[in-house]
Amino acid sequence: MMDIQLRKATKSDWDFILELRNNDFQYFYEQNSPIPKEAHYQYMENHVNDSNFHQWIISHEGNDVGYVRILNEDVGIMVKKEAQGKGIASKALDLLEREAVNLGIKKLVALIHPKNQSSEKIFKKNGYDLKLYRFEKKLTD
Ligand SMILES: CC(C)(COP(=O)(O)OP(=O)(O)OC[C@H]1O[C@@H](n2cnc3c(N)ncnc32)[C@H](O)[C@@H]1OP(=O)(O)O)[C@@H](O)C(=O)NCCC(=O)NCCS
After folding, report:
1. DSSP labels for 7-53?
2. Domains and CATH numbers, the chain
3. Ligand 1 mutation pick, 68, 73, 81, 121, max ligand atoms within 8 A of CB
4. Which of 55, 95, 101, 133 is most exposed, with minimal Cβ within 10 Å?
């Protein structure tokens, strides 16, 4: 049995979360360059009192290896590159679901890049159904 746990993220985790955000953003929605620390901190500050924002650090055998958050019903998850491919995200989504139920959240949604195969896999594996394709056309920069 894999030793994966979720613990509530606090301000002391913000740098680690930034590291994750800047480590592997290839398939992020509208993020195609590293986020400056100030912008990240501002984003986190803005959500400190947001009762619809819930965030956890994923730990594996006592080490911080990832991050998962719910914003309204939207799930975001990141696992350190070195720790990927071991089933950590999949297990973390299972734990997340229990947290969400305890918080009274009725539905979870994952918006993922169409080429993000590992992400597609973990959500499918955890019982998420594909409900729509989303097309966009940018008219100005
Ligand atoms: C998406 C992400 C969280 C998955 O984390 P992880 O801990 O590696 O996930 P798991 O190990 O639980 O599962 C990954 C699955 O994808 C598979 N996979 C990995 N790379 C793959 C690829 N290039 N093509 C197809 N499948 C792939 C793995 O084999 C595994 O499948 P399996 O369980 O059938 O073996 C991680 O890759 C990540 O942090 N990516 C960057 C951030 C991101 O894109 N987040 C998603 C936005 S919500």
Report:
1. EE--GGGHHHHHHHHHHS-TT-TT--SPPPHHHHHHHHHHHTT-TTE
2. 4-125 (3.40.630.30)
3. 121
4. 133
